[in-house]
Amino acid sequence: MAEIRINATGGVKLYDADDSHYAQIIAGTITSNVNAITLGHDVVSIVDNLALTSDSAVLKFGADSEITLTHSADSGLLLKHTATADDKPINLVLQTGETDMAADDVIGKISFQAPDEGTGTDAILVSGAIQAVAEGDHSSSSNATRLEFMTGASEAATAKMKLSSAGDLTVTAGNIVIGTSGKGIDFSATGDAGGMTSELLDDYEEGTWTPTLANAATASFGTQVGSYTKIGQQVTVYLNLGISDLDGGSGDAIISGLPFTASNSPANSWYSGEVGGDDSWDTDLSGTNLTAFIKGAYIPDQITIRKDSGDNMNSMNITEVGTSRILVSISYNTAS
Hints:
Number of helices: 0
Number of domains: 4
Order of helices and strands: EEEEEEEEEEEEEEEEEEEEEEEEEE
Strand content: over 45%
Helix content: under 10%
Distance between the termini: 81 Å
C-alpha cells in the first residue's frame, strides 16, 4: 500500500504501493523520482496529465484572481473576467511567435472537429474553422489581414467566405441566403432623392408565367410563353403569344395571367410597355402604334392592348387580333 515517510532532513516522501515511485517535499519544493511534478518559487512543471476531478473546478489567473477558467459540468469551459467595474470585457488573444509575417501566412486559427466519429474518413476531418490570414507582408505601417470562414462538406474545411481588411465580403462558394421575408440589403448609406420611400432591396425572383386572351370565347395557341424578373417591387414581364385559332369573343384585347398584381400606389398608377407582332392581325395596323397598359387602379392583373388613332389611344377589340403573334414587354410595380 502507499505510505508517507518523514526522513532525517525534515522532508516528507509519499511512496506508491510497490515502493518504487515517490514524491517528496523538502523546503517548499515538491519533486519526484519520475519527474512528475516540480514546484519552485516561480514555476510549476507537470509531466503528462493534470486532472481537476470535481465539477465546477476553477483555474484562477492573476494576483487578484480576476480571470477564471471554470468547468461547466457536461457542457464545457467558462472563461470569465470577474471584475464588475465598467469596461472590463474578457479578451482571448491568439498570438503567433513569428517575426516575419508574409502574405498568406496564417496568424491564428480556431478549428472544429469530431475526431471520435465512428464512421471515420471524412467524418473525422476538420469540419469548420475561422482563421486570420496576412494579406501582405506586415510592416511598421501595415498589418492588413483578412478573416476566412471555412467549412467542410466531404472534405477538410476550406474557405467559403472571406472578409478583407478593407471590409469587402467575398463568398467563394454557395449563395447569400436571406432567411427572413422582408429583409435584404440596406442601401441607406447612399444619397437619397426627395421622394425616397425605401432603400431596402428585399426581393429577387425570376420565373415563367402563362399568358392567355381574357375575352376570347375560344383560342388555341402555337406559342404561349411568358417570363418575368422581379427586383424589389419592380416586375418586368415578357410574353410571346402565337395565336393559331381565335373563335368569337368580345371586348378589349386583354392578356391575363400576370405573375403579380400591379400596385396602385401612388393613386391612379398606369404602366405602359411595348407591343410587337407579325402581319397576321385581322385589322390593317399599318402606321398604327400599339401600346400595352396595366391599369393599377382598375384591372391590375391584366395587360390591355391599345392602338393610337390620331390624337387618342383607343382600346383594341379582341376581334381585331385574329391569328396573330403578340409580343409584349412591360414593367410595373407590385405592392410587395
